[in-house]
Amino acid sequence: MTENWRELQAIQPDILNMIKSTMKKNRVAHAYLLEGEKGTGKREVAQLFAKSLLCLELIDEYMPCEQCANCKRITSGNHPDVHIVEPDGLSIKKDQIKKLQDEFSKKSVESKRKIYTIVDADKMSVNAANSLLKFLEEPHADTNAFLITEQVQRILPTILSRCQALTFKPLSPQRLKDKLVENGVDPQTSSIISHLTHSFEEGLRWSSEEWFAQAQKIVLKLYEMQRQNPLKALLYLQEEWFLHFKDKEQLDRGLDLLLLIYKDLLYIQLDKPNLVIFRNNIGEYESHALHISQKRLADKMGFILEAKRKLMSNTNPQLLMEQLVLNLQEGSSFV
Q1: How far apart are CA 175 and CA 181, in angstroms?
Q2: SS3 call for 110
Q3: What is the pLDDT of residues 238-296, one digit of tens each?
Q4: Which of 44, 119, 246, 257 is exposed most, by the fewest CB atoms within 10 A?
Q5: Are the C-beta atoms of residues 232 and 273 closer than 8 Å to each other?
């Protein structure tokens, strides 16, 4: 089993098994829609499938060898019969699809088959989507298409109906954590990130951002302050919190981090210390967990989730956070 296949098999086993079955039975569809969250391997799988279709030395009738000329040229992005279309600016334009159609009206340069991948297919303009529809309705022989999207609801139903849908599952937190650790991220940061995103690329970027490192410190400090003195916590919002969490997206991430702390307290109460995320703080959290009931802990988590919901409306962020701090403080002793 090649390394690329093995890695993608671990992330998306159902998809890779489908490719294996399709290749062995010689039932390759004309067009596939690869849909799922960011960072789930859609583009990598599209490339792997293209290699399977053009590989000169297939392994067991389905797996690309990764060593032949075709596999290597697809990897490097310069195979003349494999084309990739990506948004030009904010959208994929009609001219891009027209150029693709013109290219596919010619004979294959080296292979019997021609393949195209459309990245962010949901960003096609209306005219581009209509042009592609005609292309899908009257496909050239030995042509295969891979449409990639994170927003399947934005794809025209008429296009969806002409594609075989492949739904990519989000990376599990454990799998994402392991991948981050493999890439040099420390275990606690990897654990935290794996509970905030499903995307490896996004997680790896966060791990190197000073903003994210500082965000963790500020959230932990707010948690400590609201436990001890709500007035100091309210002051801390003005002095530190709002200077760091400046927009809705950043504030939402801050609330997610805060929620993880209360989840840790719950894991400790449920005698599941192996699930604790802020492992560097587990000693003090074990003490904190003794002084709060599960009902009150659930209430506090509910307050944070409600704050996240209100944040997406037009609620004033400052008033929202001040109210949250007061809610978290009330009744924090064991009841």
Answers
A1: 10
A2: coil
A3: 999 999 999 999 999 999 999 999 999 999 999 999 999 999 999 999 999 999 999 99
A4: 246
A5: no
On whether residue 203 sits in a domain, the answer given is no
List all residues 6 or more positions away from 175 whose beta carbon is below 8 Å from its beta carbon. 10, 11
- pLDDT single digits (tens) 10-29: 889 999 999 999 999 999 99
Residue with tokens 């939402």: 252
Among 146, 167, 188, give the residue marking a domain's end.
167
Q: Is residue 230 part of a domain?
A: yes
Residue pair 68/98 in contact (Cβ under 8 Å)? The answer is no
Report CA torsion sign: 23, 9, 199, 259.
positive
Note the residue count of the chain.
Answer: 335
Query: Residue 319 belongs to what domain range?
Result: 209-329
Residue 180 counted as domain residue = no
Residue 14 corresponds to which tokens in the numbers above? Answer: 């159902």
The pTM (predicted TM-score) of the whole model is 0.72
Q: What is the CATH number of the domain that holds 214?
A: 1.20.272
Q: How many domains does the chain have?
A: 2
Q: Which residue in 304, 224, 302, 297 sits closest to 266, CA to CA?
A: 297
Q: Which residues of 143-158 are buried (b: 16+ CB within 10 A; e: fewer)?
A: bbbbbbbbebeebbee
- C-alpha–C-alpha distance, residues 92 and 239, integer Å: 44
Q: Is residue 181 part of a domain?
A: no
Collapsed DSSP state (helix, strand, coil) of residue 224:
helix
Written as one string, the DSSP assignment of 246-313 is: -SHHHHHHHHHHHHHHHHHHHHHHTT-GGG-S-GGGHHHHHHHHTTS-HHHHHHHHHHHHHHHHHHTT
- Regarding whether 138 and 243 lie in a shared domain, the answer is no
Same domain, 143 and 235: no
